[in-house]
Amino acid sequence: MPQFDPGEEGVAIATFPTKPAGLECTAELWLASDMTKVATSGEIPFTATGGDKSISLSITLPGDEGTYPVYLDVFSNGQRIARFLGDEDVVIVAPAVPWAFSSVQCWHSASGVGMWRQSNFACTVTNIGSASATKTLTLWCRDYLQIWNEPPGEWGYWTREWSNWRIVETRTITLAAGASYQYNQATSTLIPYVQAREQYLADSDGYESLHCTIPDIPY
Predict the structure, then answer these.
(1) How many CB atoms lie within 10 A of CB 175?
(2) Dist. CA 13–CA 22, nearest whole Å
(3) What average pLDDT does the segment 88-94 reach?
(4) Stated pTM of the model
């Protein structure tokens, strides 16, 4: 199904049979919500040709997101003489409002728990779009693990590999156009001194911050 922005203006080319030739008619293209007109081209005059006729109909699309059936009504002498249902519905989807991430920082601080330390993350989130938006921010992390391997009959050894990404926390905020928000990690998460951690922040439209890594501290 074709997708458009809310309130977008467009021109549809409608082709349909018109009989008898010479009949004075009007055509109206309209979009419906529960069979209520929510957008219309108004009635556009034309003269029937006795065969298929193509006419251009300008329309301003609805301002609300949703899926709308498309209808074409044909009138003559004030009476509707035909109705056609479009082959495809029209889908209205608001474009994503871009957010930017700056001043990305990650660092560790003492936890007071043996060889464990607290990981921290902060950055500034700015709505660089032209409209207000509400989004969910997700803080992601993965750890550079030390893994002990001991194959049967062989000496054991350590290897290092990154874990899968996992969610640290989520937070939903609303930003007006041009506004900024100082994000500071609120969830307490610990990592060993000998283990590195990579983190980044993403919004629910897929915009991401730079990745930031807390390095390991060998014994």
Answers:
(1) 20
(2) 21
(3) 90
(4) 0.65
